[in-house]
Amino acid sequence: MAPTVPSAAKSASPSQPSGKSEVADLKQQLRQLAGSRAPDADDQRRDVFKRVISCMTAGIDVSAAFGEMVLCSATSDVVTKKMCYLYVGAHARAHPDLALLTINFLQRDCRDQDPTIRGLALRSLCSLRVPNLVEYLVTPLATGLKDPSAYVRMIAAVGAAKLYHISATACIDADLPASLKALMLSDPDAQVVANCLHALQEIWTLEAANSEAAAREIETLYSKPVVFYLLNKIKEFSEWAQCHVLELASKFLPSDNNEIFDIMNLLEDRLQHANGAVVLSTIKVFLHLTMSMTDVHQQVYERIKAPLLTLVGAGSPEQSYSVLCHLHLLVMRAPMLFSSDYKSFYCQFSDPSYVKKLKLEMLTAIANESNTYEIVTELCEYAGNVDVPIARESIRAVGKIALQQYDVNAIVDRLLQFLEMDKDYVTAETLVLVKDLLRKYPQWSHDCIAVVGNISSKNIQEPKGKAALIWMLGEYSQDMHDAPYVLESLVENWDEEHSPEVRLHLLTAVMKCFFKRPPETQKALGATLAAGLSDTHQDVHDRALFYYRLLQYDPAVAERVVNPPKQAVSVFADTQSSEMKDRIFDEFNSLSVVYQKPSYMFTDKEHRGPFEYSEDLTNLAVGAEAPENVISAQRYQENDNDLLLSTSDKEDNGTRASNGSSTSTYNAPSDLIGLSSQTPAETSLINTGGPTYSSQSNFSLDDLLGLGVTEAPAPPPPPALTLNSKPVLDPGTFQRKWGQLALALTQECSLSPQGAASLMNPQSLIRHMQSNHIQCIASGGHPPNYKFFFYAQKDGATAFFLVECIVNTASAKAQLKIKADDGTAAEAFSALFQSALSKFGLS
Hints:
The protein is mostly helical. It is 53% helix and 5% strand. Helix 23 runs parallel beside helix 25 and helix 31 crosses helix 32. The N and C termini lie far apart (104 Å). Mean pLDDT is 79; it is low at 1-20, 606-699 and 706-716. Residues 1-25, 645-690 are annotated as: Disordered.
């Protein structure tokens, strides 16, 4: 049987894809629809436009269909026109030559009878942002500002600001600012007035740098007629526009008190507005206008309490946090005015952690004699919170209240009760606070020590808690019977203690205990100094060496240095200066309040806060190796892709200079405190006598320690390593190696004071390292933090050493990360690198 002959294929519908690529298929369909008068042509054209916009949204380059899209723009369908305008605005800047094709139909649409199409066309025309087409924008904008439709005038006002950014000369020559000002003061539509105000502020602010006339025009915006005209219409504005007008009013300088009261009367009902931004803007106006009127200013605080507290409980957590930040700023300026509303700041179960933390800070600030008991009782309930960070903050809050109150009897009892809770973080936080309390209230030492003495150091895991306990063991060792023996057990486990902070406190505590109870602490002191002198952490080693030589010089002087008569601490340092708080208050109702820092600290690059370094070297545009005798490092301008320094790197820095880290042996200076060169070696503690001590010149410290340790052999010299004097490594290879090689060493070392001072010019360090055959391929940062990438090559081999060096000139410390092709030579190279770094600035 003969096979059935298939019927002829139907012609493809314009809206159906063919076998060609997506863009080519869309172009073909658009050509078929261009000029089509079919009854369903508008529907098909809309479907194809939707597909074009979908491709554009997905990131597909559909600019090839620009001409076809323009041909199909002749339609009366508003939805299709919107999509066409969206497409044209997205591709005009990338294709300025093709953008010229859109001028005719956009200008034609600007004269359409439908005001919606006129406004859309004018907005799209101004959004082309092509300098060559500026001449085609002026006439439609001037016409749009006089259009009978408020929608078109609103678009034209914003378009004038767009034109200024494209060509300031064209905007000024067309006298558009004058038209905007006239429209602002006469237009009946509130949104048109708001857009004119915004455009004028933007244009005149930028123009004021070059024109005195513009500066005078800015002053007219802050004049009484303009401000009162806008404030009288404020109820007609949208919420966004109200905030803009209120920001303008906050900068108005009234001539007398009557004007101040007139403005406050006009804005009184804005405090009950449902929008938090409007309420905060109104509060800013009230606060700034009454700064010079002390009594009225205090009344303003009373008046704004209720609206702010309402906003805290009525909005989303994010809004609550923003309002709480502003409340916190006001509380810090006038805590007494909010002390009666302390219950409003109690934490709710449903509050996010960031809101709870801010509420705890506010409870701390408003605590006084009348409400301390209730606040502390509430805070104690939070100590058992399942949210550990909040539990920690609540304990700290109790301690802060105790430090700022006169009657602390009940608070101290509450803190001591925390020590009975079987939770490590609670015990650690409480010990830190008890230490601070004892520094301010020494009279409470007997009660506190009686409880602290029952705590075993083995049950405390957090370094700061253990350090606080050790401090109390040394400071009050005469009142704690087991103090010498507890310290001795801690010294025996020296190698297991990884925190340098704890080891530093242990050194000092044993010294203090020795001068109070010498017979029982003699052995522990010798073991502590020996362990400290052999410690790989430089701060620990230096302190042990200092104590050793101080004792060797004169024990009486050592006692006065280590254990002097102490006075109670009356005031603890504030973390933020009053000047900084005033600057934040001046920027009320802005991100400065949320960030708790002035705007210049997070906007201007030269005043940015803590630096953050990018670990990914692909963000570094390192340059090629420079010729000989030319510095090979590129000094980058500070921008968002620069290396920005951070005190805590993204890589785990737990191995940095820890007790068990692999570092080269530290060679102490021969005379730390002015002793003669005949001083015995730090680690040779020879037993030549009894355990008693004396201040006579022939005093033998080794006698006192009674260790009987034989003289330690000198450390072996580092392996010989010679570097290639002219290594060659291009930036691309450096990046690839840095990403592939494993981390060989992480260390911390010190710079000389002269070296830290010399880093005011980072190029000097680069030249110094080049003289030691170590090249720099990239550098960045600014005072006091700098970051360098160095490399060197093993002489006679292809092995490279790569170094990331982070230097803090304030502490004169350098953090090193070393990667090497030959891992066995990493330690030798580290010793060579540190040797070169230590000599920087000395020659």
